[in-house]
Amino acid sequence: MSVEGPPDFIPSYQVIPRKHDTLRRLSRLVVGAEVYLATDPDREGESIAWHVADVLGLQAPKRVRFTELSEATVKAAVAKPERIDMALVEAQEVRRVWDRLVGYTVSPALSRRYGGSWSAGRVQSPAVRLVVEREREIRDFQAATYFNVRLYGQSAEGTWWLDLVGDGTQPDGRLTTRAVADRLAVLESVAVTHCADEVERENPPPPFTTSSLQQAASVELKFAPEKTMELAQALYEHGHITYHRTDNPNLGDGVLGAVTEVAEALGFRCVGTLRQFPVPRSAQRGHLGIAPSAWERHAAGETADERKLYAMIWRRALASQLEAAAYLVRRVEASGVDLGKRAVQFVGRRRVLQSPGWRALMLPGVEALYDAEDPETPQAAERDSDNALPLVKKGGWLRVGRGEVEEKKTRAPQRYSEASLIRRLEREGVGRPATYAEILRRIRNAEYVELKRRRLHATPRGEQLIDALAGRFGFVDLAYTREVEEQLDGIAAGEKQRNAVLGAFYDRLMDEVSGFDFGCPVCRKRPLRHMVGADRETGATYDYWVCLGERKGDCDGAFADKDGSPDIDRPLERRASAPAPSSGTPCPKCGAAKLRLIPGGVSAGGKRYGAFWRCDAPRCGEKFWDKPNTRANAPKEVVK
Ligand SMILES: [Zn+2]
Ligand SMILES: [Zn+2]
């Protein structure tokens, strides 16, 4: 695919060579036939249907959509064929045009500045940014020590405990003074300020969407998102589950009867109506939560991994429609006065499961983690059910048996896993279910991030990328990306005009790109490129900037660096007698006139290296360090 510039931004498409055979076969089959297009039921699928119709020259083809591959749903769809939805096709095309505009303009600008090959993208760069920012939070994190005081006592039913709520002297409510904690730990009694029993209901988590399925499979089954999608694809194609690329967790209206029947056969109770869950604003219409195609099928799949994934999908979908779990909760608040006459608050909770509802179907404790802010750092399980707090009237007293001081440390934020990064992107409204796994693959291949023990680490190259883009390009700004997604939705709804929206993106992007290049003040023709010099004696590296015209020998603009930008007031002196550093400099080893300047930078392993010359002659390939101020000596010292 390529794209024309303004005002019309007309994309032109080309068939990928390896798909030629498929198309030839299709074009033979469609002759004189009635054609039904049954591509996936989403924006991407609508776009594919339109392209197929276009390439095959189909006249008014029929479009059928279904979210599961069962005989009944396919027959029903074929009985009521529709037309291709051109607003959807257009919204998808605008998204792709925008992706291309960003990729085609920003990636070369990065290469002009830093040399080598760089890639930037509308979705992939914000993803790298999140990983880089998390990396820096972790680097800057300083652990703080604080104290909890836990008071223990006895009731008729056993041991109870209360925890300190903070003494009001610290802004974040944490007690940081050991001496105060020690004084509180010897309190002999506390006055009850609140004590009440109530029933707490806990609703089940929603059926899976693409991202929550990837998240859960990552936590529970240790599957990478890409693997989860392959397994789900197989389950979908065998008719076991509904369509698995979705951002809406809700089930279709027609399933209530089947769900109730299966639940009751297993001895569970449903709520009687279909339970609805919040839908992200960006969710596509027509999407539904991932569910089994046949609810009575408790197990399905060809391989062990498929069966594990199916079991998780089945359980979660069924649980979503069962009764809430009910707990009897007793909450006690009490205050004590320490020797310094300061009143402090303690709180305790006793939580006993009364009726398990949906929890009977799930591993206790696992599901709650999926939707937590950082789902893979479960807090140490608090066994609130063992807390034997008695029922005490307000104003009554509790006798303390003993107190304990617990020293705690604040913890650094966790690195993202692939799955939790996808969840975050979805929450931010960046990217779509069909593309998440592909985006992750790309940013790993480009070495902006790396996966170590299932956690994403930012590489120095990734940090360099974000330093270059952040604050200069709107598309790495999550708020801007959300705003643009809303405009795209406006196109899909027929409210916004395609060319006006694209024109506004384009103008802003062009401004940003032209502001990104540092023009060479010597020749005023070419931009400056960032270089890394290395001092061979000390091994220290430093940044500087050289005119791109240097390669052709027609400009010798070179400048020192200041905070990542060229310092135009500090030109680097080139020795007058130095030969023009061009490909005409002969290789000291083989004599071939094929030396090429490689601009230095940061290796994937994080080591900075200086600019060097490489001999391009076949069977030579020798490398020589560059010395920016003493070019005459440059190609003599061999890179070790
Ligand atoms: Zn120049
Ligand atoms: Zn050579």
Q: What does this 3D model show about the protein?
A:
The protein has five domains: 2-88, Rossmann fold (3-Layer(aba) Sandwich), CATH 3.40.50.140; 90-139 and 416-516, Orthogonal Bundle (Topoisomerase I, domain 2); 145-203 and 325-409, Topoisomerase I, domain 3; 210-319, Topoisomerase I, domain 4 (Orthogonal Bundle), CATH 1.10.290.10; 528-636, no CATH class. α2 (43-56) packs across α4 (86-114). 32% of the residues lie in helices and 20% in strands. It has a seven-stranded antiparallel sheet with strand order 10-7-8-9-6-5-11, with helices on one face. The protein has a four-stranded antiparallel sheet with strand order 14-15-16-17. A three-stranded antiparallel sheet has the order 18-21-22, with no helix packed on it. It is an alpha+beta fold. It starts with a strand and ends in a 15-residue tail after the last strand. It is built from 16 helices and 22 strands.
